[in-house]
């Protein structure tokens, strides 16, 4: 009998522990949502580079080839936005002889460049993804493709904002339902106290994760044959993520 009484008391204690009072409890609930959309914008970086003992000659050839490349890009994709992305001129010095251990250091002479490296880049932003391979191939007759990345236009991103918020808020409601069930409470007993969408407190705000194709090509000899086969691109898609934190209080 004493053993049975002890078991009953332990069972009552466990039952009591499993049914802690939740009146007035404040529960912090994180929620997540995402929207996926096919990329509709491409940004390509094309460049030209030349090396010559005569700095002016190298710069002149670079300037001429960039002008030709810009004309090709404007003709191939008139709606594309073009922007100069950089212009650099570097001196190239001869290699210094190695220092022989135990020998006195030679007198330091002024370094004189043996040649000059000149480079210029242009950024192309376009929504004409179908024509992008043809556009790039045409420009590669004089320019080198160094980088391509795909993403969403600002207009598409704004249009997806409502869907992203709705998906995140739906996830919040689903989590609140699950938590209420686990606590043995009804959802009607819960009152949504605070919803933090953008991390105005100590919570994380929204962030954007881009998944798609990214093409990187090294600079090549620009004195190549003018005919270039069209490259192959896969624009991929972009995932817009949002995280919010809600505070729920049970009556």
TrEMBL record:
The keyword Signal applies. Gene3D superfamilies: Protein of unknown function (DUF541), domain 1, Protein of unknown function (DUF541), domain 2. InterPro entries: 26kDa_periplasmic_antigen (IPR052022), SIMPL/DUF541 (IPR007497). It holds the Pfam family SIMPL. Keywords: Signal. GO terms for biological process: DNA damage response. The keyword Coiled coil does not apply. Residues 1-17 form the signal peptide. Coiled coil: none annotated. This is DUF541 domain-containing protein. The lineage of its organism: Bacteria, Pseudomonadati, Pseudomonadota, Betaproteobacteria, Burkholderiales.
């Amino acid at each position: 009998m004493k053993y049975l009484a002890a078991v009953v008391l332990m069972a009552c204690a466990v039952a009591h522990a499993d049914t802690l009072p939740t009146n007035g409890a404040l529960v912090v609930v994180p929620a997540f949502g995402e929207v996926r959309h096919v990329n509709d914008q491409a940004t390509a970086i094309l460049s030209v580079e030349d090396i010559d003992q005569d700095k002016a000659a190298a710069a002149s050839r670079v300037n001429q080839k960039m002008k030709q490349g810009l004309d090709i890009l404007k003709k191939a994709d008139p709606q594309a936005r073009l922007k100069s992305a950089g212009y650099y001129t570097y001196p190239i010095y001869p290699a210094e002889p190695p220092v022989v251990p135990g020998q006195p250091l030679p007198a330091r002479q002024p370094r004189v460049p043996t040649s000059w490296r000149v480079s210029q880049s242009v950024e192309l932003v376009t929504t004409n993804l179908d024509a992008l391979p043809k556009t790039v191939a045409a420009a590669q007759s004089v320019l080198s493709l160094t980088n391509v990345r795909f993403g969403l236009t600002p207009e598409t991103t704004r249009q997806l904002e409502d869907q992203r918020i709705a998906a995140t808020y739906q996830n919040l409601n689903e989590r609140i339902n699950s938590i209420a069930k686990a606590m043995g409470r009804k959802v009607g007993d819960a009152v949504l106290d605070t919803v933090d969408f953008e991390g105005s407190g100590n919570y994380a705000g929204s962030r954007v994760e881009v998944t798609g194709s990214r093409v990187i090509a090294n600079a090549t000899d620009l004195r190549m044959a003018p005919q270039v086969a069209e490259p192959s691109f896969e624009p991929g898609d972009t995932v817009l993520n949002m995280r919010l934190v809600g505070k729920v209080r049970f009556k």
